[in-house]
Amino acid sequence: MTSNEPLILAVPKGRILKELSPLMARVGIEPEAAFNDDNARQLRFSTNHPGLDIIRVRSFDVATFVAFGAAHLGVAGNDVLMEFDYPELYAPVDLKIGYCRLSVAAPSRLAKSDDPSRWSHIRVATKYPGITRRHFAARGVQAECIKLNGAMELAPGLGLCRRIVDLVSTGSTLKANDLVEVETIAEVTSRLIVNRAALKTRSEELTGWVERFREAADAA
C-alpha cells in the first residue's frame, strides 16, 4: 500500500450490505451507479471521494483483504474476526448492524434429553472451526469439526454429525429443519476494521474515516 493510491474500503456482499448502505450514506460515501446495479459484474467501484474506492467481496474474505493489506479498511462481523483472529486488524467501531448470534444447535429430540455437562467429545458441522474448537476446549470438550460453508442444518438429519455451530438471526431456518439452539457462543454485530500498518502510515486519512463511521453509528 502506497500513500498516493486511493484508500480501499472492503464491504461484504449480501444481507449486511443492505444494512450498511444507509450507514455509508450517512458517512457521506456515494458509490458509482454500478455498485447498486445487480447486473454489474465489477467488484471494485469508485466513490464521490477521489481518494476512496470500494471493493465488494464475500463476508468471510473482508478480514483477509484488510489483514493482508489489499484493502485499508472494511466492514466485518465479529464472528469473522473471532474465527481468524488476525493480529494485523484493529476494530475501533461497532457499527451496530448485522445483529445475530453464533449458537450451538441440535435436533429437538436430542436437545430434550442431552446433558452438555457430560460431553467429552463431540462432532460438529460448522463454518467456524476455530471458534468452535476454542469454545469447547475451554470446557474440556474435544470438538471434531466438519467444515461446511453452508446448509449446516442438513448435517444432523443426514447423519454427518449431531450438532452444528452457526449464525442465527430469527431461528426460522433451525425450526424448519427441526433444530433448536442449545447454547449461545457469542452475540454478533458488524465492526469497522482497519489495517494496523496502514493506520500508522496513513493515520490522518484513516482516522478521519474512523471518526465519520463512529459518529454515524452513534447517531443511528
Secondary-structure map:
Layout: E1 7-12, H1 15-27, E2 44-46, E3 52-57, H2 59-67, E4 73-77, H3 78-84, E5 89-94, E6 100-107, H4 108-113, E7 121-126, H5 129-137, E8 142-147, H6 154-157, E9 163-168, H7 172-176, E10 179-188, E11 190-195, H8 196-201, H9 203-219
Parallel strand pairs: 1-3, 1-4, 7-8, 7-9
Antiparallel strand pairs: 2-3, 4-11, 5-11, 6-9, 6-10
Helix pairs in contact: 1-9
Q: What features would you describe in this structure?
A:
With 220 residues, this protein is α/β, with parallel strands linked by helices. It has helices spanning 15-27, 59-67, 78-84, 108-113, 129-137, 154-157, 172-176, 196-201, 203-219; strands at residues 7-12, 44-46, 52-57, 73-77, 89-94, 100-107, 121-126, 142-147, 163-168, 179-188, 190-195. Helix 1 crosses helix 9 (203-219). The longest helix is centred in the C-terminal third of the chain and has 17 residues, at 203-219.
The portion of residues forming beta strands comes to: 25-35%
Number of helices: 9
Give helix and strand order, one letter per element, not per position: EHEEHEHEEHEHEHEHEEHH
Q: What is the subunit arrangement here?
A: single chain
Structural classification: alpha/beta
Question: What is the spatial order of strands in the main beta sheet?
Answer: 2-3-1-4-11-5
- Rg, Cα atoms, Å: 19 Å
Global outline = elongated
Mean pLDDT: 94
Helix residue percentage: 25-40%
Taking pLDDT < 50 over at least 5 consecutive residues as the criterion, the unreliable ranges are none
Main sheet: strands, sense, barrel: 6 strands, mixed
Number of strands: 11
End-to-end CA span: 32 Å
